[in-house]
Amino acid sequence: MHCVLLNRYHLKWRPGANVSSSDLSSGDDLKQAMDLQPGYYYHIYNRGNNSQKIFFKQENYLFFLKKMREQITPFASIIAWCLMPNHFHIVIFLHKEEVEVNIDTLTQSEGINKTRTVNQSIGILLRSYTRAIQKQENKTGSLFQKHTKAKALVDEIKIDPAYWNTTFGTQINISEGKSYLETSVEYIHKNPVYSGLTKKAEDWEFSSYRDYLEQRKGTLLDYEMIKKEGLMWDSDTLTSSKRITKNICIIGIGSNIDADKNISSMLEILKDRVEVVKVSPMLQTKPIGIENQPDYTNGAVKIKTEHEQKSLIKLLKQIEDQLGRDRTGSKFGPRTIDLDIVAWNGEIVDQDYYTRDFIRASVHAVDDGPFPD
Q1: Is residue 14 annotated as part of the catalytic site, yes or no?
Q2: What residues have CB less than 8 Å from 10, skipping those under 6 apart?
Q3: Catalytic pick from 127, 210, 243, 335?
């Protein structure tokens, strides 16, 4: 898939342009701060000031969506969206930079212009939402961070890796054959999984992914444009391979401090975050490196997950910390729980697999794939 329809425009723009909160009161200043031009896909995003919550209850999410419809759809097609407790993502295709506005509907603070720019409308969206939350929560001050950002999703423009890390909190690799547009939409929908809010993307109510799966018939998206770009399929041709990619992973397990309890607790936590496929029998093994410590209980668990490898490693470390893992001692010292990725999508990624019999036995117990003996 390629966004070739974007190439007919030869415009100068700043793909990483920002909108500051001070600009939101002035349409002219805002236009200079965020240079959105028709004919391009944009990823628009912001988060709460100091990462504070911006959505407190269901009514807040619904009110924000209502404002998106009022303020964005006159200018652009909405391609994807995800509202998180402390931030939001919106992907749009901009059709026009300004629209005519009924002068009777303009408030005094908005002036008496007969036209309104998309930049002004985004400002109105954020201001009106901020006022509603301030009233609801009885608070003052900035709700959003100073800069609302807009990134042009154009394959011909090199997007800095820092964009993926800052925006999504994880390193994103562009799969062969995927455009920046497709990759951004997929990762926006995966955001609740990466943040630990849900195990599957479709479990999060406040994103457009359920609409992509036709589990809900929302009217905010431009389905014609989404299907034209190959981002969505008709229900009779939608297969699991065309949904968000699920990775298959085998995790090695080890514990020699209250092993039965900690392994059981770990599996319960893991089941809430990923799809557990199979757990191996546990094996008793002698300690390696430091012999003067209790024997270990080792095994493996096979999972399916929407996490990428780096974000899964982060999740496993969080689980280890939650169960009291002490990282100050020796590498081979006692531990409450030790979790390591051994295999990723059928490929061995932990070299200890080749030197430790108990790891190989545990991997073969959960997956009969063509792993080396």
Answers
A1: no
A2: none
A3: 335
